[in-house]
Amino acid sequence: MHFISPVLWQFLIKWLTHFAIFPPEASSIAPYADALYFFLVLISAVGLGAVGFLVFYFSIRYRKDLNPEATQIEGSTLLEATWTIIPLILFMICFVWGALLYFRIYSPPTNAMNIYVVGKQWMWKVEHPGGQHEINALHIPINRPIQITLISQDVFHSFSIPAFRVKREAIPGRYNTEWFEATQVGTYHLFCTQYCGTLHSQMIGEVVAMTPEDYEAWAAGSTSGNSLAQNGERLFASLGCNSCHNSGPNAHGPNLGKIYGSHLQLKDGSFTTVDDAFLRDTILNPTMHEVAGYAPIMPTYQGQVSEEGLIDLVEYIRQLDSQYRIEQTIDNSAAQPIQTGATPPGTSAPVLAPGTVKQ
Amino acid sequence: MDSHTLAAQTAETGHIEHGADHPPFLRHHFENVPQQREAATFGMWLFLLTEIMFFGGLFCSYLIFRNWYYPAFVAGSHTLHIWAGTLNTTLLIVSSFTMAMGVHAAETRMRKALMGWIIATLILGCGFLCVKAYEWHDEWVEHHVPGLNFSPEGFLHGTKDYPDDKLPLDMAEKTQVYFSLYFAMTGMHALHMVIGVSLLTILLIQVYGGKYVNGHVAPIENFGLYWHFVDIVWIFLFPLLYLISRHQ
Amino acid sequence: MSTILTLPDQATARLPKVSYLNKEYGLKSWLLTGDHKRIAMLYLISITFFFFIGAAMAALIRMELLTPPSDLLAADTYNKVFTAHGIIMVFFFLVPSVPATIGNFCIPIMVGAKDLAFPKINLLSWYLYIAAGIMMICVLTFGGVDTGWTFTTPLSTHYLNTNVVSAGLAVFLAGFSSIFTGLNFIVTIHRMRAPGMTWFRLPLFVWSHYAASLLMILGTPVLAITLVLVVLERTIGIGVFDPTKGGDPLLFQHLFWFYSHPAVYIMILPGMGVISEVISTFSRKRVFGYTAVAFSSVAIAVFGFFVWAHHMFVMGISNYSALVFSLLTMLVAVPSAIKIFNWSATLYKGSITFETPMLYAFGFLGLFTIGGLTGVFLGSLGMDIHLTETYFIVAHFHFVMVGGMLMAYLSGVHFWWPKMTGRMYPEGISKLAAVITFVGFVLTFFPQFILGYLGMPRRYAAYPPEFQVLNVFSSAGASVLGVGYLLPLLYLTWSLKYGKIAGPNPWQATGLEWQIQSPPLTENFAETPIVTHEAYDYEWLESRKGSEVPTVG
């Protein structure tokens, strides 16, 4: 509907939000969702109107005073077919329209900026790829697709931004994704909508949509110094991943350069696309994803890496354009221990790298 | 409705007045004995349908996780004692036979035979429970009880019979899911056995007091249905838990 | 093909000397009864009790939500209160409401039987319900439970320190109570019909209970095993749902909703049966398209089993299963639409009067239509993403469950009250109560649709201040609604002693239950009835008017 007459649409939305009975429409998807909503409201009104009209009209016209004699009618196949088929058609329209919207909301564009979110009782931990960490807040640039990769480290949570009309559950043990593109500068509600225990209603935050310039300034001012990929690189080295995943001629593990997004053949002959969820699960449950051509010797890292550490690793592997970086890592870690106390392989220093879990 | 169809209806639903010769066990709200018997049997079948859905949830979970964690399920299955499973299967099948003979004895109004068959069924049922208890004890000793004393240690190095069962740690941990389902399924089945044995004991006492050999066999028949159902559940559990991965 | 039926003058009606109410006296004669009518009365009393506990919880919720911060109730108390509201209203009121009271009372009489097939199991079902209820009361007394009625894992299994196990077992027991009720109904409907009572002569009330009973016996055991697994996971720590042990919490969601979605049809189908009876009776006309209404009940039951995953669209189920479940959800909406239009068409050329049950039925038509149509919003995939887990969901299922089912329940209670007690309720004040209930309901729950689209999440003890206005409307409506529910409790109790004598058939309805004395004999019928007419055959009723009713004691 907004694509028919943007001006009228703006007028309608302004009018509705003025009375505080309509949420702000702040993402590129929101007008599509609202269009479907108005359509559904319309058919509901028509349906309710039809039933209301029949009931009221018949009640008045055929009340006992006016119609003391009831006329017995069996039924009418034609009429019944009519009110079977018309609702069916309307519901099918809702189905198709809803499905299209669903795929629009849940299929991120390939150029989206990836932000990781970890839910825990009762806070949202946001990790930007540039190393900005936030709690219960999410700063984003407008007019740029943002993909949220969600996971929970305890119970079910749900990451909901009503102004963007998006929501997805954060589930323990697996990545879920959602994406949006903010269109208006502003501060919006961020809710946890899946009941998650005592302080469920405190698991709220704000989404700050900024102009790209403001965002750049914010990002530069609040970075922790190391990008996620840099943390991941350090973790990669300290866990000893590079002893197998190097590009050497006798490497025991697959080459990780450019592996993200590629199609990988597994031992059982099936193919899988390497995405965040696959990488995370392979680190924890390597036996369940044995890659063709390699011996299943990778140990599990279950219980050794925190969710944040896994995010660092995934982000690191995601950004590996070639094996070159890994070789660099080997050199670096062998040459000089990196500043924040990461443990180079081979040493038995008790200091834990960030992202590892003390056992 | 014309009289012809009404008569057909009457014959079909069995609402024929029998006059005053109602046997004492005919409950007041039934028209006649066949109606009472049909209702009882139909009710029992519906209850078994409920039971199928009850176990269905477990079987469904089993199939999903078996598909996911195949090596863990194979290795978990290898630790069970096949002789115990086979013995238990035999016990239950024989007990189904004795129960069927018991129903037959009730139908032919032979009180002594009925008591004999019930006692035989009871003994076989208790035998099953004893073997099951032995197995559970064994699994406790082996540290295979999830949540209480589970340890994946036994699955990391292979066993004498299955030297190939060397699971990596992550897969060895997944044997917990196998044993969770194993204990849930055999536990629920054993609970049904315990209920069955208790009901059977009550029936035995009632038969001793002279009931169910006067033509009123519906309780014995329906208990028989229940007993066969519990047996059939085991007939599914045995291959799924013990046999299906024997040679892998 | 036209009929004139006038309501009888009740001045001449007398209470029968012997009825199921006065055949035996004493507490024992009630607590050990096998009589389906007495068990229905026991259920009526206990369900009313639990309804008002649940309603008190609702009152607390609405009072807390008057202001944005969690000031009246602390967050953990609020969580316990809405959990108690959910569990009690779903498992202790809505599921047994119409089936266990009105269904229990009427189904044997409607099919022409002396009792349900298994009177002892019927009594056992009530005792299971009471045991579960007492357990639930104990749970509430000793610290409560705060899982939400959905028992979501791993929250319920690993992260809460409340009485999850005993609450789970209480629901387990209540589930078996409902299985036994359903089993009894199916066997009775199959095996105990009177001569001449063919399937297509059954009142639609019986059809809808048959469909609901199918759901009860096939769905409830899945809930039972799911709760057993939750309890085992919480007590000894097995790992079927626990992701840290390799289990899958989504499996819990699948198993739970495999019951709990059909459960909403368990709740609404019997209500639809009531509406069929009431609308037909007060328009003196057979239900338009009997077969379509009967089969739409069965269709709802069948489709109802294959839509459960629409509760999980945002949980990360695969896109293709989301498509299938959305499509099936749209299909299950169609039989409900058919019913609504058939009921409306029943009014056409009727001779309509507006007694209280009819007013409640009109309320049902309006509110259930809204509830059903907003269900289409939620079944529509892309819309569900924004609306699920918000107050839109809350409003939607309250429109269906309270606006639909509770209206139908009150309609049924008023409709069959003369049959159950032999006395009429006071017509004037009950009409007022029906109107108050309708107005209070709309005022309570309509603002919640708007709140939902604004994005206010459900189960929040505290909320952002801009949502306050609509919440105040909602709480104001809830207090009106409370009056609407208290009134029937008062005047129905009053009418037990002071109500006018009803006589056997005050509404001139056609069902077999109206052809016998009110209140009925313990055996229902003096002699087995032989059925020669269709359901809702008002010409047959007119033709036998004047001739002495043979089965009145």
Structure description:
The complex is a heterotrimer of chains A (359), B (248) and C (553). Chain A has 359 residues and is an alpha+beta fold. Helices cover 36% and strands 18% of the residues of chain A. Chain A has a 5-stranded mixed beta sheet with strand order 4-3-2-6-9, with helices on one face. Mean pLDDT of chain A is 84; it is low at 331-352. Chain B is an all-alpha fold. Helix content of chain B is 72%, strand content 0%. Mean pLDDT of chain B is 86; it is low at 1-19. With 553 residues, chain C is mostly helical. Chain C has one domain (39-543): Cytochrome C Oxidase, Chain A (Up-down Bundle), CATH 1.20.210. Chain C has 17 helices and 1 strand. Chain C has helices at residues 27-31, 36-64, 75-94, 97-111, 119-141, 155-158, 164-191, 204-235, 249-282, 290-304, 319-346, 356-379, 381-387, 391-421, 427-454, 468-498, 538-543, and one strand spanning 2-3. The model of chain C has no long low-confidence stretch (mean pLDDT 92). The chains are: A alpha+beta (359), B mainly alpha (248), C mainly alpha (553).
Overall body shape of chain C = globular
Supply the helix-strand structural class of chain A.
Answer: alpha+beta
**Structural domain count of chain A:** 3
Q: Determine and state the CATH class of the largest domain in chain A.
A: Mainly Beta
| CATH superfamily placement of chain C | Cytochrome c oxidase-like, subunit I domain
> Helix segment count of chain C?
17
Number of helices of chain A: 8
